[in-house]
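Note to self: keep these together.
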Amino acid sequence: MKFFLLSHKILLSSYFCVVCGYLNLYLSLPEVQRLLGLHAELFYIRKGVINDYALNFVVLIPSNVDSLHFTWETLTPGHQVHYSLQVYTSNPVALPPPKFNISDFGVIPNSVQTFQITLPCSGIVEAEVMITIKINITFSPENVTTLTFQRKKVCLELVKSTTYISMDSVPQFTNSANIFYIAVCCAILLILILAFVVISYYIKDNKTRRTTENGSGPTTSTTTFLAALPRSSVNASSYGSFRRMPSYSLIDERSKDLQDKVTELSVQRCRVRLSSIILEGTFGKIYHGSYTTEEGNEETVIVKTVTDHASEVQISLLLQEGMSMVDDKLNVLVADNALSRDLFPSDYHCLGDNENRPVKWLAIESLLHKSFSPSSDVWSFGVLLWELTTLAQQPYVEIDPFEMAAYLKDGYRLAQPINCPDELFAVMAYCWAMSAEERPNFTQLHVCLQEFYAQLTRYV
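Structure:
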């Protein structure tokens, strides 16, 4: 397959002509940007030439996208080109039959126009739904072409309910004025409810504060949320977590710093939106999500939280773990997704301090002094490179976890894997330097690996 990029338009080889010179059918630049993240236009038919590869490409629709847009025009003003539309879904329960904003059949316009297909999920069940769109194009009785588009959408379960409500019993409001008045009434009701909640909280807070100042009564507990941090274009991934913070975990002196840090990073829960689950462990979950900034910009994030049956201790551990990751400048440190302890328990060890850690991946200063920095992350990255070159063998498999600190302090390191090039192993060895200052930073590692890759591809 050949790929050409001309004037911000996507063109692919293997064309064949059916309705030559009579039609353009494509996805506009904003639509391609929205669905595929590319700054280009995707042509299915360009001046009557059909792009077979583009038609066979199954486009994955994000769960938060509820509509598709196609742009078309005929290139023969004096001749009418007729069409008919059909759409099917593999799971009508998860995704009801989509609807067009144009008629099912008619004449293709002779100027550039865009039509829309709406496909919102029902929210009843969670499923992966295949959507088939067929467009029959008739230029003449002898010249009929059928175009088939495949789309795939993941629908999430939004509401669990055993009550079935017939749509016939739901009143249909066709008058826009009625809809407007209903929306205004709902908004007023919501404002009143929020005002009542705020006033109640204010009264209760003042009462509790007075009780505390008099030296009696329990201390107040604060419900706090830790915002998910956005992924940047540089980091492979960054994530945070949010969850109600148990009050008892903040009582002792050791947790005061944690409380201050969590309060400092807290944001409104409504700014964080969860979508699909990436991973799930014994008591933790990782979600794809989005975070809306104060400026109104929406950023893609990875969100970590706990399951509904997690204990208060596990919730507290989640927050402490999150804090050990966000440094003094709020930069997220390199770490796993915190589910590895559930999936790979043999990789984590407790060295008598009730804290499970990936001992054989940690830098020597992390083992001896619990010191974590970008330099210690570089050490762990070197172990990761060793795992990749050994096809996921266990590092230091013959060393007892309690002896790791002494073993590294004596200067021992992982051996060079079989078939590992000397240049690549040299990069690993630099990562395991005894002094943190002697290790390369990630920018230098990136340059080294790029140069190694460039040399490697010369001979492949």
